[in-house]
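Render this sequence as a predicted structure.
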Amino acid sequence: MSLAFATIRQLKEKLKNKEISPKELLDYFIKRFEKYDPKIGSALEVFNTDSILEKSNKNGSLYAIPGLIKDNICQKDRITSCGSKILENFRATYDATVIETLKAEGAFLVGRANMDEFAMGTSNEYVAFKKVVNPWDNSRVPGGSSGGSAAAVAAGLVPWALGSETGGSVRLPSAFCNLVGLKPTYGRVSRYGLIAYCSSFDQIGVFARNVYDNALIFSLISGQDRRDSTSLNVPKKDYTQNLDGELKPGLTIGIIEDALDAKGMDSEVKELVNNAIKEYEKMGVKIKRVKFPTLDYSLSVYAILTRAEAASNLARFDGVRYGFRDKGAKTLAQMYSKTRQNGFGAEVRLRIMVGNYVLSTGHAEDFYVNAHKVRQLMVKQAKELFSDVDLLLLPTQVMSAFKFGTFTDPLHMDLQDYCTAFVNIIGVPAISIPCGFTKNNLPVGLQLVGPHLSEDLIFQTAYAYEQNMPWHTMHPKELD
């Protein structure tokens, strides 16, 4: 068995049996970063071995299991740049709640994952420092904005990673890279220490190569946090307990026809998702075709609300308190404008400007207020759907991973989130799991979406499919 693509359970067993020591395991993965990551670009920084060892609890349940953290999640005394020059030298003064938890559980947090700047992107092309490539085809994108986290797990550089989701930034890279990616119920994982993009959408999510490992990490990081007023008062639980390959008796899955038959849906993606639906039918699942009438409005709602909140959240990066400050300015106004002009990339500046526009006098009613009304309508329609089915199923992606530079129009890039953004709008959980490969050997993913706090059922249903399929066991052969 290759350590590079071993599961967390397998690595824990080897550590328990003393077949390998914690330091030897860490050294193994650090060397893989040194060998492969100069080409892949998944990490903005890999930490010093001694500093990793000293920050982990030896008695934790995840002791010595390496993971990579998206660079918008604060790690105390480490740089947290959000992939942006404006925070290039900013060192976090505290740990995010998820980082506190993972350190207490003994995880080896090996570095900072590359990302689209301030999590604004679908392809990981909106980067300030270096691009991330897809380990399955280096001429193609890994998906964004959590592309570094996804690429590292897909390349066997770590067995798990954390990302963040605003409109599909865990699920889409998972689909592009043949991974299992979870976007939890809004409020199930504390956002304390996650640098905000869009506070009412953002949620920390998990990357792994199989459902069990994903459920294991999620079980550790989920839970209420008094420092995050939006976190839910729900007890922690072990989401791996019901992963036995069995399905809920009488399980009904709704197939969102609006997504599967959407204009622009790639024929190979549609075929592979339909094959997965047939597999579920063979397993005894009742399949029901459903409509989600407001789905076509989701990208507009997403674009308006996320940009509005981004304009507010990113106003704090002004050169006064922390981060980059333009030294050439002669007045306070110049310092503000030059700092933001030279510190933020073009995509971030564009989203801030759009956000200020939709919030401005004379336009807020037409854009921001109406978008909130449609959001409420989407929540209502989703509740109606879940009164009739247990889960929803749809593709994660409209096409397989595309080549760098394919989309120069931001609107066409935004369309990549067609199947994912509605989940963040309504705040429910969803998981992307591998469901096959195109003729060009590019991964394809499907989504299972459930009502609030249905992660247990989502994991159980995803695991049952996974156990009947070989997809999760496949990885890029040149990285063995």
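Summary. Residues 186 and 427 are 5 Å apart (CA to CA). The radius of gyration is 21 Å.
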